[in-house]
Structures are given as C-alpha cells and as structure tokens.
Design goal:
Blueprint lengths: L6 E3 L12 E6 L33 H7 L3 E12 L2 E15 L3 E4 L1 H4 L4 E5 L5 E10 L4 E6 L20 E6 L7 E12 L4 E2 L9 E4 L11 E3 L5 E8 L7 E5 H14 L5 E2 L2 E5 L2 H7 L7 E6 L4 H4 L7 E5 L2 E2 L3 H9 L7 E7 L2 E7 L2 E2 L16
Parallel strand pairs: 1-11
Antiparallel strand pairs: 1-14, 2-4, 3-4, 3-6, 4-5, 5-8, 6-7, 7-8, 9-10, 9-13, 10-12, 12-15, 13-14, 14-15, 16-23, 17-18, 18-19, 19-20, 19-21, 21-22
C-alpha cells in the first residue's frame, strides 16, 4: 500500500491528523481521566549537583537550565456531545512565557477555541490563563496569567538564522514534561505546499529543523544558542525522521502588539492574485531576471484595479521592500496599514511604474483564495 508522506500540522479541524499536540477524551462517567503530567522538578534546580565535565567538552546544559523554567504546559478542556452523552476533550500542548508580566505564547490550535486554559509552570504551580489574542491564519495565540515576575524567554531574530545553525526545542511531547532536543535549522521559508493540512488562507514561512518535535511540542520554543526564541514549534512530517516545522519569531513579533491590544489582527488586502515568477514568464515578458512577483489576476473594483494594476505586471517592491516571493508579498500586504497609500513598484514588461495603492480590509479570510492576494497555480 502506498503511504501518504505529506506533512501535516496538529490542527483542530476534522479530517486532519493531530500530530504536534496531545489530545485525549475524558469521559464524563469518570471511568477515564487524565492526570496532569508531573513537572520535572530536578532539571536545573540544583546547579551544584551538576557533574563536572572535562574542560573544553561542549554542553547545552547551561542554556537549558536557564531557559527551561519559562516553558509551560498548556491544558484545555471542551465538552463535546456524543451519541452516548457528553465527553470532555482534554488537550495538552506547550507554550513559553515571553514577558515577566505573565504573557504566554502558544499555538492557536492548542487552545481548541477555549477562552480559559490551565497553565502548568515548571515549578508545578497550576495557574488559570486568559486567552487575550489569537490568530488562526498564523496559528499563534497569547495567554495572560495573573502572576507577575515570572521567568521568561527573550525573543530573538529568525531573519539572522542560517541553514546549519544549532537550535534547541523544549516542550512536553506525549506528556513527558520539559523534554529537550537539539538539532539544526535544516531549511527556511517552507510554505503550505510543504506542510499539508494547513488553512489555505493562512500565512506560512516555516523554519524546518531536525530537532525532535512530537505530539505535545506544539507551541513550545525553538531556541538559538544565545537562549533566544527564534521559532514556535508547530508541525511535523509524519513517517519521517525528525522533520519538524516552527513559525519564525519575526512573523510573531509583527502581530504580537495587535494580539495583545486588540485580541486579533486586522489585515489588509490589495485585491490581486499573485504567483512567483517562473523562467518561462521571464522569457515571455522580456524581463532581465526573475526578480519580483507576477500578477495573475486583478479583482474588479479592488485597490489594485483602481490604480491600474494589470495581469502580467510584475511587482518588484512593496512599501520600500523587495517582493521576493508570492508568500512574502501576501504577508507584507496583510500586515500593512490602511491609514495611508503604500508605494508599489511595478515592471510592465520593460517599463517601470510606481503606483500609490490605498489598501482595504481583507474580506472573508477563509475564502481568500477567491478574492485577495494569493498564489496562483
């Protein structure tokens, strides 16, 4: 039998295999229950107990001892009607404190639509958390705790990572609390074409790593050797050895203020379909290089149409930044302000144009493939 080796995310919708988080039913009769996993109370608690090692032998232990207290368990419960009554679905995932005032980052799919969650800290305290913001299109959520002065992890810069850089993943795979694995950045810029089962209207530019990621790791941190978070572990490729995917922290940084202040991200649209340039497009349009993103369709009456954008136009820059791929352009458009027009640099065959585009609110994100900026086949 031929096996399906597509990568899938731990997503809450039907028909998608749950891989990167740990979900189990708790029957209302009490015959089946889940006890909270026991926090690892020994990890890094007594530095004096660490066995000395020969000078010059490298170890990740000091980094892990410092980072581990900020990594948390995330638990949600949802009542689900069944033919025999009501069951309670209990979902476990990972997260990490990124602000000492009690703000936790995790995956949107870990929360399963819950507004209140239980957070288990590394010192075994169990705190009630309030979901203050979530975004399904990037699979990011923010939870707030009442406690202050908590251990936290600094956010790094994923843009400075190079393929081959060492990284560390900490999380709670299969309920095994505070499990540490290490590996390298295997690739950058993985899209929904590489990780099947994602929301087709979402925004993805995953880091790929061979640090071990399993069920329960969703929402946990991917950390560089300076102890900074460079990604949020999210998905795995099944039937493969250590192929995992993390959301780059630079994408998270750009939407964090909106999630914390407004609870959601207000997105913008330009009203065009786009695709990355192919070699035959370059020859057909008489271009000198594959620099830019091809416009394949312009929505009538949309912002692009109002300024004269046409199919086969090539967008080479948006708001002063080069357009390097269709996914990157979609992302930049989506997080841009609607308060003032943005400058869009275009090549119309050999003619260079600069257009001032007034963006509009993104309409019906889940139907975006029919109306907004989206890669075309």
């Amino acid at each position: 039998m031929k096996q399906n080796h597509q990568a899938v995310a731990c997503w809450g919708s039907l028909g998608v295999v749950l891989l990167a988080c740990n979900t189990a039913p708790e029957v209302s009769t009490g015959r089946v229950s889940l006890a909270p996993p026991v926090a690892n109370s020994n990890l890094g608690r007594d530095a004096a107990a660490v066995v000395s090692r020969p000078v010059g032998v490298p170890s990740l232990a000091p980094l892990v001892r410092k980072a581990d207290p900020a990594v948390v368990f995330v638990q949600t419960q949802q009542a689900m009607p069944t033919a025999s009554g009501r069951n309670v679905s209990v979902t476990w995932g990972s997260g990490f404190i990124f602000d000492p005032d009690g703000y936790v980052l995790t995956n949107h799919h870990v929360l399963s639509g819950a507004k209140h969650v239980q957070i288990l800290l590394g010192d075994s305290r169990k705190l009630r958390g309030e979901v203050v913001g979530e975004d399904s299109l990037t699979d990011i959520a923010v939870v707030r705790l009442e406690e202050k002065n908590l251990p936290h992890l600094p956010l790094g810069e994923s843009s400075t990572l190079e393929v081959g850089d060492w990284v560390v993943a900490i999380g709670n795979p299969f309920g095994l609390s505070h499990t540490v694995s290490a590996g390298i950045i295997s690739a950058k810029g993985r899209t929904r074409n590489d990780v099947q089962g994602l929301d087709t209207a979402g925004y993805y530019s995953f880091l790929q790593t061979d640090a071990s990621i399993n069920r329960g790791n969703s929402g946990g941190p991917l950390i560089d050797l300076m102890g900074r978070v460079v990604g949020v572990n999210t998905a795995v490729k099944p039937h493969a050895n250590n192929i995992g995917f993390a959301i780059p922290i630079d994408m998270v940084r750009e939407i964090l203020p909106a999630l914390i202040e407004n609870g959601a991200v207000e997105r913008s649209a330009m009203g065009v379909h786009v695709a990355s340039l192919r070699h035959d497009d370059v020859a057909r349009l008489g271009l000198k290089s594959r620099r830019g993103v091809l416009v394949t369709r312009v929505r009538s009456g949309g912002p692009g149409a109002r300024v004269g954008l046409l199919p086969d136009d090539v967008i080479v820059a948006f708001d002063g930044k080069p357009a390097t791929s269709s996914e990157q352009l979609r992302w930049r458009v989506s997080i841009s302000s609607q308060k003032a027009p943005v400058l869009v640099q275009v090549l119309r065959r050999t003619r260079a144009l600069t257009l001032r585009v007034q963006l509009e609110p993104l309409r019906a994100p889940r139907a975006a493939q029919h109306s907004e900026v989206l890669p075309s086949e």
